C-alpha cells in the first residue's frame, strides 16, 4: 500500500514538474569560446569549473585542462574555480579564443564548500562544529567501508572495532554517548550518529552498502547548533556523506584498483603438548572439591602423543592467507545543462579464516539536468549487492581448545575426526572439517538507494526544492551446518541444521524546502524552511529446519528437512513528520548568526507526547576581517564560534509504548495451543532531549602553514529513554521510561601544518587531532544511585567495570588468612573493601571504564617529485577492556572451562606451589574459581599504525599521447604494526582492539560479574590481519 | 505571471501530496506483536493459561531447577561435570555470600511473571466468556496455577510479595506479605479450584458441548485436592500453622483416595510403570508439565539442551562411554559407546551412596524399587572391545556393572566387563564422581538423536504421594495406625515384581509391611526417598519437615560440613532487592 501510494506520489510530482517546465525553454544566439586552465607550473588542471557570471552556463575542463563554453551574449565574464586554487574572473568577448588561464594556489581553504545539511555553506560562513574529510584523505586507508576508513581521522569521532570478520562494520560515536541504552542494540540506536547520504537519511541500510570509492566528501556535524536541523535522530551527531557527481566537460574516465594479500598478524598463544600435560596434572593436584582427582585425565591417544612428542597447532588448520581486491570504473562528464556520472565497482575481502569473506557489487548513476534557467532536476541512484559469508561462524574456541597431544590426521593420512575420543569432550570434531564446502552461513543483501530532486528558482534568491528519497533493501540469510563438523558435532544426518531468513526494509522521504537568499549591501540573509515526512518499514521472517537427506541441498529445500519451525516474524513501521526553519545572517562577512527551530512528530512515542519543538542558535565572528587584525600578517584566518542548541531523541523500537505478550506455545497431551505471557505492560514515553553548548576557534597562521580548530563543549541530556529492569515480583521484566540525566564535556583539537615546503617541491604535511571526552551519569531513575547489572553509577562514566578487585593470588604462606575468606592458596585474592572479613557484594568497586581518557590521530604526508608517502597512526588511551577468554566464560568468544584443565587454552602464567605467581590462579579440575571475572579486566590503551602508503604519480609529460591524463601507482600496508599496547606487551592478547560484544562471564561458582552486554570486548575471535596492497588509479 | 501560477500550483500539489495521511503516519499498528488488549478475548484468556503452563517448562525438567529441588540434600552429590556454578548448591561452599548465583536458577521471576499473567486472566477473563461453565473452568485453571506458584514461592523463600490483581503499570516498589497471608490465599484459590476445575482432563463442558482444551494431565479437581492436602500439611509444619492443618491434610488426602474412581486415579501394579515412558498420562499421574516431539508445541529441538528443554534424561547419567577396557588402568578401548538407550551423559547429579545404597534402599530384595530406580548394568554395544578378562560380545555381555554391593573377588576375576562398587564396600574400583549408578526414571528411548532433549512430559505429582501425605499428616496427628496403613499401601505395591511368582510376591508383600510403632519422621523420609528418588521433591520434603540441616549433616559428607542453619530458606534474588528502588528496601532472608 505504502509503496503504491509512494509511486503514485512520485509520478504526480514528476509529471507536474515536467508539464510546468516544458514551456519554459528559451532559445538564444550564442558563440563558442575555448581555452585552457593551468596551474602555476603550467601543468593542466582537469576538472576546473568554468561558470558564466550571468548564471547561464557552466562547464569544466577536460583531462588536458581544456574547455569550451557558449557565450549567450557578445560580452560576458567567466568564473574559473578549482578546489585549492584562487578563483579568477575573466572578461570575455565573443572573439576570445584559446585563452590561457593560470590559477594560483590558494593556501586559504576558507572558500571550500561545506555540506551543512539542507544546503551548503562556505567554510568561512559556518557557525557550527563541523569536521570534514576529503576522498583523498579517506583513500589512504583502504577498507571495506568508509566508517573503518575514518578511524582516528577526525577529532571527536570515535570509531571502535566490534568484530574482526570480513565486512564487519564498527561502532561509531560522535562526542561519546549521551543516552543510556542497556543492550548493545539499544545503546547503538540511541547513541550512534545519523548518516545522511546525499541529503537523504540512510535508514535501514548498512554502511557496507556504500562503496567508499563513490564518496567525494564526508562532513560530520558535531554540535547541536549544527545538528538541530536534523531533529530527533541527530542527537548522536550527523555524518553527511556526499557521493561523486558528474561535472560539465569532456567525459573523464577513472579507473581505480588495488589488490592486497592479507595474513593474520598472530595466532593465539596456547599451551604446547608438554605444557598442556603439566597443566592438566596441576589441575588434578589443585582440585579443591575432590583433591587429586580429575574428570579430564589424558586419554590413551594423548598419553601416546605425550610419549612421542606430538605437539599439534590446531590453529594452522583454520587460517589461510586472505586477499582484498577492489575495482572501480567510472565515467563522468556533461554539458552545461546536463551532467552525469556512472560508476561500477567490485570489492572482495577474502578472510583469513576458512568460510569467511565479504563481496560487494555496486552501480551508481547520477544525473543533474537543467531544464531551463529556473528549473533543475536530478537523480542519484545507488544499487548494490553485498554477500557476506561466515559472519556468524566462530571456529576459534572449538579449535584452540583441542588437545595439542593429538594429531589432526591418522597414520593412514585420513582425518582424525574425533581427536578427543575417550575424553569428556569426545564429540568435538577436527577443525579440518572447516573446509567442507557445504557449510553455509550466507547473507546476501540487495539495496537500492535513490534520491531525486526538483529545484525551481521562483524569484531571484527564492528557491523551492523537492527531495524524494526512496530506499529498498532485502537481505536473505541462508545457513546450513552439516554434521560431524567443527560447527555441529552431531553425527546423524537427521541432526543437520538449516535456515532461511528474509528481511526487507523500505523507506520513503518527501521533503519540501524553500530557501531565500538575499544580499543587501553588507547584509547577507539565507532563510530555509522545511516540511518533511518519512516512513520506515521493515519486516522479516525466518524458518529453521533440522535434518536433511544430503549435504548438497544446504538450505535450498526446507521441505526435505525432518522438521521445520518458524522463528517469530518481525514487522515494524515508524513515521516521522518534521518542520524546520533556519535563518543564516551575516554582516560584512564578519558577524554570523544562525538560528534554527525544528518540530518533530514521531510515531513511536505515546500519543499526546508525539511532538516536540526545540531551538538552536549559533554566532560566528570572523575576527581576521576586523581592521585590527587585517594587517597582522601572520594571522591568515581567525574565527570564533559559539553555539547552543537542543536536540531530541526518540530511538525506541516501534510499539514500545503498547506493551507486549510473549508467545509461548504448549501442548495439553496431543492438543497444541499458542500461549502468551504478559512480559511488558504499556509505557508512557516522550522525547529525550540534549542541551548542548559549543565554543570553537578556527585559525590559520603564517599563510595557513599552521591551521586548525579547537572546540570545547558541554552537553546535558534529560528524560533519557531507558529500559529499566523491574523487580521480578512485578511480573514484567522491564519497561521503558523517560528518566535520568547525563552530562558530558569535551575538548577537541585539530591541527594541520605544512612543516616543510621547499622550492624543489618537497613537502611534509601533518594532520593531527586529539579529543578528550568526559561523561558522567547525573541521575538514573527513582533516585537510584547505582545499577550494577547495567554498569551504571551516578557520578561515574557511562560504562564502567564494576567488580571485585584482584589484588593477587593467595600464597602458601597466607593459607590461614585465605581460609578466613573460605579460600585456599592458589585462589584469587580480592580486596576486602570494607574490611569486614567477608567478601560479598558490597566489596565490588568501580575498576575502570570502557571509555578512553583521550583519542588521537596523526597523519603525515610527504611528497617530492611525484612520490608521496603517507603514514596514518591512531591512539586510544586510558580505557579498560574486558578479555573474556581470560576468565571462565560461556560465550562463543571465551572459555567455558578456563583453567580447569579440561581443554587447552590461552597460555597464562598460573600459580602452582612452586610457581608463586600473582597472575593467574591455580588450575582446578573442579572448576571452582572464585572471582574469575577479575582476571579479564586489562588496560586496553594502544597506539597503532593504521596504514603506510607509498605512491608515485607518473608525470603528465611522460603520458603524452598515451590517452591517459594521470596515473598513480601505490602500495599500502594496512594495519602494519602496533606501536604500543600494554595488553599485547603482557602477552595476554594479540590485539587491543575489540572484536565482539559482552562475553558474559557467568563465572565460576557464580562469583563473577557479567561484562555488560553492550561493552565491546576483546574476545577469542578472528585474529587481526595485516594487508599489503598494490594499487593504481588512472584518469583518461 | 503565468510562470508563477504554474509554480504555485506545483508547490501546493507537492505539499499536499506529502501532507496526505500525515496524521496516519503517527499511528501505530503492530502486526507481529500481541498487545495486552488481547487478554479480554476468549483466545487471549486460553492463550494466557497456555502460556503459564508453557512457562513451567522453564523450571521443571531444566538443570537449574532440578538442582534447586534436589541438590544439597541427603540423597545427592554433585556429578563430575556439574558446572562450577552449581557445585556450591551441592556442597554449600561459599554459597551464602553469593546470592547472585541463585538468580539464574530461581523460581522467583518465572513465578511472578506467571502469577501476573494469571491475575490478568482472573481480572479481564470474566468478561470474555458468555458461558458460565466455560468461564468457571477456565478461570479455575488460573486460580490453580497461581496457588501452585505461591506454594512453591512460600516454601522456597518464606514471606514473599502477594499480588492478586494485575499489575498494569510498572512499579519499582514491593514488600513481603506474611507467610500466613500467602498460605491463606493459596488455600482460598485451591479450595475454589477443587470444586470449579474439570473432573478429568479434557472432559466435555456440559453447557456448550465443547471439549475442554485442558487435556493430557492438566489440572483437575483431583490435582487441586492433592495440592491442597500438601499445602495444609506444609502449613501445619510451619510457623503459620493452624491447629486443624494436619487433620485437614489427612481428610483432604483421604477424600481423594475414597473418590479415586471418580477422578480415574489409581496406582500401577508395578512401581516401574509409574515413571515408565508412555505412562505419563496414566492413572497414577496427577499433573505434568507437558512435552512432546512437536517442535512448535512440544518444546522439542534435536540436540536441544539448556533453556526450557526437559533434560532430566541427561542429568543423572554417569560418563559410561569413557570407561575403558583396562579400567582402572589407562589404555584400552572404551567399553561402551553413547547411544539412545543408555543416554547422553551429562554427569550432573549422582546418588549419595552412603545414604541411598546403605540407608534408604538398604532392602534391595523384597523392595523392588532400587533396581527400578537405578540402572546398574550397561550391555556391551561396541564391537571389538577386549578387557584383560576377555572380549565383550555386543548385546550379550555386560560391559559395565555397578552392583550396589561387592560381588566378591571371584566374580571380579571372571567377569569380562568392568565392575564398580559402592565406596562403602571398600572393594577395588569404587564409584567415582563420573562413574555411578544411573537414575532411570526419566529415560526416553523414543527420541531420535542421542543428544536430544526428552520428549516425555515431566511428572510433577503422582497419586502415590497422596498416601504419603496422608501418612505424614496422620503421623503428625498421632494416628500411627493410619500412618502405617497408608505407608503399607505404597510398600505393598513396591514389593511387586513382574518376574516373581505370585507366592514370591506375596512373601515380599508380607515382609514389607510395617507396624504403627515403626512410623517415625525419619522412616517417612526414608520411605519418600525410596518412592520419589529423583522426582524433584527432596529439598522441599526436608524443608517442610524441618529436617534439611539435620539429615544433610547426617548423611551428606560433602554438603553436611558446610550447611548452615538458615539455609533451609533460599535467598531472595539479588535482582529483587536491587530493583526495589521506591519505598522501603526489600529485605533479604536472614543469614544471606
Descriptive tags:
heterodimer, A: 1036 residues, mainly beta, 22-stranded antiparallel barrel, 11 helices, 55 strands, disordered N terminus, B: 592 residues, mainly alpha, 23 helices
3D architecture notes:
The complex is a heterodimer of chains A (1036) and B (592). Chain A has 1036 residues and is mainly β. In chain A, the strands form 14 sheets. Chain A has a 22-stranded antiparallel beta barrel. Chain A has a five-stranded mixed β-sheet with strand order 10-15-16-13-14. In chain A, a hairpin with a 6-residue loop joins strand 19 (338-350) and strand 20 (357-370). The longest helix of chain A is centred in the first third of the chain and has 21 residues, at 2-22. With 592 residues, chain B is mainly alpha-helical. Chain B has helices spanning 2-19, 22-25, 42-55, 63-70, 87-91, 100-103, 108-124, 132-157, 179-196, 221-237, 245-258, 271-274, 312-315, 353-360, 369-373, 409-414, 464-477, 480-495, 502-512, 521-532, 538-544, 548-555, 574-579; strands at residues 76-78, 285-289, 349-351, 374-375, 377-379, 386-387, 390-391, 398-401, 418-419, 438-439, 458-462. In chain B, helix 3 (42-55) runs parallel beside helix 8, helix 8 packs antiparallel against helix 9 (179-196) and helix 17 packs antiparallel against helix 18 (480-495). The radius of gyration of chain B is 28 Å and the shape is globular. The N and C termini of chain B lie far apart (86 Å). Chains A and B meet through helix 1, strand 25, strand 26, strand 27 and strand 31 of A and helix 1, helix 3, helix 5, helix 7 and helix 23 of B.
Amino acid at each position: 500500500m505504502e509503496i503504491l501510494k509512494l509511486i503514485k506520489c512520485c509520478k504526480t510530482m514528476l509529471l507536474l514538474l515536467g508539464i510546468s517546465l516544458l514551456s519554459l525553454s528559451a532559445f538564444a544566439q550564442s558563440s563558442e569560446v575555448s581555452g585552457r586552465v593551468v596551474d602555476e607550473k603550467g601543468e593542466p588542471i582537469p576538472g576546473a569549473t568554468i561558470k558564466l557570471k550571468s548564471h547561464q552556463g557552466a562547464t569544466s575542463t577536460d583531462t588536458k585542462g581544456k574547455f569550451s563554453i557558449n557565450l549567450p551574449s557578445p560580452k560576458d565574464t567567466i568564473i574559473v574555480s578549482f578546489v585549492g586554487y584562487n578563483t579568477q574572473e575573466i572578461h570575455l568577448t565573443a572573439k576570445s579564443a584559446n585563452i590561457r588561464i593560470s590559477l594560483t594556489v590558494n593556501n586559504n581553504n576558507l572558500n571550500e564548500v561545506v555540506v551543512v545539511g539542507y544546503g551548503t555553506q562556505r567554510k568561512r560562513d559556518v557557525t557550527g562544529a563541523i569536521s570534514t574529510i576529503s576522498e583523498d584523505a579517506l583513500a589512504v586507508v583502504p577498507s571495506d567501508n568508509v566508517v573503518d576508513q575514518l578511524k582516528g581521522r577526525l577529532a571527536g569521532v570515535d570509531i571502535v572495532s566490534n568484530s574482526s570478520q570480513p565486512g564487519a562494520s564498527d561502532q561509531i560515536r560522535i562526542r561519546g554517548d549521551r543516552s543510556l541504552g542497556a543492550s548493545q542494540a539499544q545503546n547503538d540506536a540511541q547513541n550512534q550518529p545519523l548518516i545522511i547520504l546525499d541529503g537523504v537519511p540512510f535508514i535501514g541500510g548498512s554502511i557496507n552498502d556504500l562503496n567508499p570509492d563513490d564518496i567525494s566528501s564526508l562532513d560530520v556535524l558535531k554540535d547541536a547548533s549544527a545538528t538541530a536541523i536534523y531533529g530527533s535522530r541527530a542527537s548522536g551527531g550527523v555524518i553527511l556523506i556526499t557521493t561523486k557527481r558528474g561535472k560539465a566537460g569532456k567525459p573523464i574516465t577513472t579507473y581505480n584498483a588495488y589488490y592486497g594479500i592479507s595474513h593474520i598478524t598472530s595466532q593465539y598463544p596456547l599451551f604446547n603438548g608438554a605444557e598442556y600435560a603439566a597443566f592438566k596434572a596441576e589441575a588434578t593436584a589443585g582440585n579443591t572439591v575432590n583433591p587429586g582427582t580429575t574428570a579430564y585425565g589424558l586419554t590413551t591417544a594423548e598419553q601416546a602423543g605425550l610419549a612421542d612428542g606430538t605437539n599439534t597447532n590446531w590453529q594452522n588448520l583454520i587460517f589461510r592467507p586472505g586477499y582484498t581486491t577492489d575495482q572501480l570504473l567510472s565515467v563522468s562528464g556533461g554539458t552545461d545543462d546536463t551532467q552525469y556520472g556512472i560508476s561500477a565497482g567490485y570489492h572482495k575481502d577474502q578472510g583469513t579464516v576458512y568460510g569467511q569473506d565479504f563481496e560487494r557489487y555496486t552501480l551508481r548513476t547520477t544525473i543533474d539536468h537543467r531544464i531551463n534557467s529556473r528549473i533543475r532536476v536530478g537523480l542519484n541512484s545507488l544499487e548494490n549487492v553485498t554477500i557476506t559469508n561466515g559472519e556468524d561462524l566462530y571456529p576459534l574456541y572449538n579449535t584452540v581448545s583441542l588437545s595439542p597431544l593429538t594429531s589432526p590426521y591418522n597414520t593412514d593420512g585420513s582425518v582424525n575426526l574425533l581427536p578427543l575420543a575417550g575424553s569428556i569432550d569426545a564429540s568435538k570434531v577436527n577443525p579440518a572439517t572447516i573446509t567442507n564446502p557445504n557449510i553455509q552461513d550466507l547473507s546476501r543483501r540487495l539495496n537500492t538507494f535513490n534520491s531525486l530532486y526538483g529545484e525551481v528558482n521562483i524569484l531571484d534568491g527564492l528557491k523551492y526544492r523537492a527531495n524524494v528519497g526512496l530506499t529498498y533493501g532485502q537481505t536473505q540469510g541462508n545457513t546450513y551446518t552439516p554434521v560431524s563438523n567443527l560447527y555441529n558435532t552431531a553425527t546423524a544426518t537427521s541432526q543437520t541444521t538449516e535456515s532461511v531468513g528474509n528481511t526487507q526494509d523500505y523507506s520513503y522521504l518527501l521533503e519540501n524546502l524553500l530557501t531565500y537568499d538575499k544580499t543587501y549591501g553588507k547584509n547577507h540573509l539565507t532563510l530555509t524552511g522545511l516540511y518533511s515526512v518519512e516512513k520506515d518499514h521493515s519486516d522479516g521472517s525466518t524458518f529453521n529446519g533440522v535434518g536433511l537427506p544430503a549435504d548438497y541441498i544446504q538450505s535450498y529445500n526446507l521441505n526435505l528437512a525432518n522438521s521445520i519451525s518458524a522463528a517469530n516474524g518481525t514487522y515494524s513501521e515508524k513515521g516521522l513528520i518534521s518542520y524546520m526553519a533556519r535563518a543564516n545572517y551575516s554582516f560584512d562577512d564578519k558577524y554570523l548568526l544562525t538560528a534554527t527551530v525544528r518540530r518533530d512528530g514521531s510515531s513511536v512515542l505515546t500519543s499526546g507526547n508525539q511532538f516536540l519543538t526545540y531551538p538552536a542558535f549559533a554566532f560566528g565572528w570572523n575576527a581576521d576581517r576586523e581592521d585590527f587584525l587585517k594587517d597582522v600578517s601572520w594571522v591568515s584566518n581567525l574565527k570564533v564560534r559559539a553555539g547552543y542548541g537542543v536536540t531530541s531523541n526518540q530511538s525506541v523500537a516501534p510499539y514500545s509504548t503498547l506493551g507486549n505478550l510473549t508467545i509461548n506455545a504448549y501442548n495439553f497431551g496431543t492438543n497444541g495451543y499458542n500461549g502468551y505471557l504478559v512480559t511488558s505492560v504499556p509505557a508512557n514515553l516522550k522525547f529525550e532531549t540534549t542541551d548542548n553548548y559549543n565554543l570553537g576557534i578556527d585559525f590559520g597562521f603564517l599563510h595557513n602553514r599552521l591551521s586548525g580548530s579547537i572546540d570545547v563543549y558541554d552537553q546535558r541530556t534529560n528524560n533519557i529513554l531507558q529500559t529499566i529492569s523491574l523487580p521480578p515480583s512485578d511480573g514484567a521484566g522491564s519497561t521503558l521510561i523517560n528518566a535520568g540525566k547525563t552530562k558530558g564535556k569535551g575538548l577537541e583539537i585539530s591541527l594541520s601544518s605544512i612543516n616543510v615546503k621547499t622550492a624543489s617541491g618537497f613537502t611534509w604535511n601533518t594532520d593531527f587531532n586529539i579529543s578528550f571526552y568526559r561523561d558522567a551519569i547525573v541521575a538514573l531513575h527513582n533516585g537510584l544511585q547505582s545499577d550494577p547489572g547495567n554498569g551504571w553509577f551516578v557520578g561515574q562514566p557511562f560504562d564502567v567495570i564494576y567488580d571485585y578487585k584482584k589484588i593477587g593470588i593467595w600464597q602458601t604462606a597466607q593459607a590461614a588468612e585465605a581460609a578466613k575468606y573460605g579460600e585456599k592458596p592458589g585462589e584469587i585474592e580480592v580486596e576486602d573493601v570494607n574490611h569486614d572479613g567477608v567478601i560479598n557484594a558490597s566489596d565490588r568497586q568501580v575498576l575502570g571504564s570502557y571509555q578512553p581518557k583521550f583519542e588521537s590521530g596523526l597523519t603525515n604526508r610527504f611528497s617530492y617529485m611525484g612520490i608521496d608517502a603517507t603514514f596514518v597512526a591512531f591512539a586510544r588511551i586510558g580505557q579498560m577492556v574486558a578479555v573474556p577468554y581470560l576468565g571462565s566464560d560461556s560465550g562463543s568468544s571465551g572459555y567455558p572451562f578456563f583453567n580447569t584443565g579440561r581443554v587447552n587454552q590461552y597460555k597464562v602464567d598460573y600459580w602452582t606451589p612452586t610457581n608463586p605467581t600473582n597472575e593467574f590462579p591455580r588450575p582446578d579440575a573442579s572448576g571452582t574459581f572464585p572471582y574469575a571475572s577479575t582476571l579479564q579486566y586489562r588496560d586496553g590503551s594502544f597506539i597503532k599504525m593504521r596504514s603506510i602508503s607509498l605512491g608515485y604519480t607518473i608525470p603528465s609529460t611522460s603520458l603524452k599521447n598515451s590517452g591517459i591524463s594521470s596515473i598513480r601507482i601505490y602500495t599500502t600496508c594496512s594495519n602494519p604494526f602496533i606501536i604500543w599496547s600494554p595488553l599485547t606487551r603482557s602477552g595476554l592478547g594479540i590485539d587491543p582492539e575489540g572484536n565482539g560484544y559482552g562475553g558474559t562471564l557467568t563465572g565460576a561458582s557464580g562469583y563473577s560479574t557479567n561484562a555488560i552486554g553492550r561493552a565491546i570486548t576483546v574476545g577469542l575471535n578472528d585474529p587481526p590481519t595485516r594487508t599489503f596492497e598494490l594499487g593504481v588509479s588512472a584518469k583518461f | 505571471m503565468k510562470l508563477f501560477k504554474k509554480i504555485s500550483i506545483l508547490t501546493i500539489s507537492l505539499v499536499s501530496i506529502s501532507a496526505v495521511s500525515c496524521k496516519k503516519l503517527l499511528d501505530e499498528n503492530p502486526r507481529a506483536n500481541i498487545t495486552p488488549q488481547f487478554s479480554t478475548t476468549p483466545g487471549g484468556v486460553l492463550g494466557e493459561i497456555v502460556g503459564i503452563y508453557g512457562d513451567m517448562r522453564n523450571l521443571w525438567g531444566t538443570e537449574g531447577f532440578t538442582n534447586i529441588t534436589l541438590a544439597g540434600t541427603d540423597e545427592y552429590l554433585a556429578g563430575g561435570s556439574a558446572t562450577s556454578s552449581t557445585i556450591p548448591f551441592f556442597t554449600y561452599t561459599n554459597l551464602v555470600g553469593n546470592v547472585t548465583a541463585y538468580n539464574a536458577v530461581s523460581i522467583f521471576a518465572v513465578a511472578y511473571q506467571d502469577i501476573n499473567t494469571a491475575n490478568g486472566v482472573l481480572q479481564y477473563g470474566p468478561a470474555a466468556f458468555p458461558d458460565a461453565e466455560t468461564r468457571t473452568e477456565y478461570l479455575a485453571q488460573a486460580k490453580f496455577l497461581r496457588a501452585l506458584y505461591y506454594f512453591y514461592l512460600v516454601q522456597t523463600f518464606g514471606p514473599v510479595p502477594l499480588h492478586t490483581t494485575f499489575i498494569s503499570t510498572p512499579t519499582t516498589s514491593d514488600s513481603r506479605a506474611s507467610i500466613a497471608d500467602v498460605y491463606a490465599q493459596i488455600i482460598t484459590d485451591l479450595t475454589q479450584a477443587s470444586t470449579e476445575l474439570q473432573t478429568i482432563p479434557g472432559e466435555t463442558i456440559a453447557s456448550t458441548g465443547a471439549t475442554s482444551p485442558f487435556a493430557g494431565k492438566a489440572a483437575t479437581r483431583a490435582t487441586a485436592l492433592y495440592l491442597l492436602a500438601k499445602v495444609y500439611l506444609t502449613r501445619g509444619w510451619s510457623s503459620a500453622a493452624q491447629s486443624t492443618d494436619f487433620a485437614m491434610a489427612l481428610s483432604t488426602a483421604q477424600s481423594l483416595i475414597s473418590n479415586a474412581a471418580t477422578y480415574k486415579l489409581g496406582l500401577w501394579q508395578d512401581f516401574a510403570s509409574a515413571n515408565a515412558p508412555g505412562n505419563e498420562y496414566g492413572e497414577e499421574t496427577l499433573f505434568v508439565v507437558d512435552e512432546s516431539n512437536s517442535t512448535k508445541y512440544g518444546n522439542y529441538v534435536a540436540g536441544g539442551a539448556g533453556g526450557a528443554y526437559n533434560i532430566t534424561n541427561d542429568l543423572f547419567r554417569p560418563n559410561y562411554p569413557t570407561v575403558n577396557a583396562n579400567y582402572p588402568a589407562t589404555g584400552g578401548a572404551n567399553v561402551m559407546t553413547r547411544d539412545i538407550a543408555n543416554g547422553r551423559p551429562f554427569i550432573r547429579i549422582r546418588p549419595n551412596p552412603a545414604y541411598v545404597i546403605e540407608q534408604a534402599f538398604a532392602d534391595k530384595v523384597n523392595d523392588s524399587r532400587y533396581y527400578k530406580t537405578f540402572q546398574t548394568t550397561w550391555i556391551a554395544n561396541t564391537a571389538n572391545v577386549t578387557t584383560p578378562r576377555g572380549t565383550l560380545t555386543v548385546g550379550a555381555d555386560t560391559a559395565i556393572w555397578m552392583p550396589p554391593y561387592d560381588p566378591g573377588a571371584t566374580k571380579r576375576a571372571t567377569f569380562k566387563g568392568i565392575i564398580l562398587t559402592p565406596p562403602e564396600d571398600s572393594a577395588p574400583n569404587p564409584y567415582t564422581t563420573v562413574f555411578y549408578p544411573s537414575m532411570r526414571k526419566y529415560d526416553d528411548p523414543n527420541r531420535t538423536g542421542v543428544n536430544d532433549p526428552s520428549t516425555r512430559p515431566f511428572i510433577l505429582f503422582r497419586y502415590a504421594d497422596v498416601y504419603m501425605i496422608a501418612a505424614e499428616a496422620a503421623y503428625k496427628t498421632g494416628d500411627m495406625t493410619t500412618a502405617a496403613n497408608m505407608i503399607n499401601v505404597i510398600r505393598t505395591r513396591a514389593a511387586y515384581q513382574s518376574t516373581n511368582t505370585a507366592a514370591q510376591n506375596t512373601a515380599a508383600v508380607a515382609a514389607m509391611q510395617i507396624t504403627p510403632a515403626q512410623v517415625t519422621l525419619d522412616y517417612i523420609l526414608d520411605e519418600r526417598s525410596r518412592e520419589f528418588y529423583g522426582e524433584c521433591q527432596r529439598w522441599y520434603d526436608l524443608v517442610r519437615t524441618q529436617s534439611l540441616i539435620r539429615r544433610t549433616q547426617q548423611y551428606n559428607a560433602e554438603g553436611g560440613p558446610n550447611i548452615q542453619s538458615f539455609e533451609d530458606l533460599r535467598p531472595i534474588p539479588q535482582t529483587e532487592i536491587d530493583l526495589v528502588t521506591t519505598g522501603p528496601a526489600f529485605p533479604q532472608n536472614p543469614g544471606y
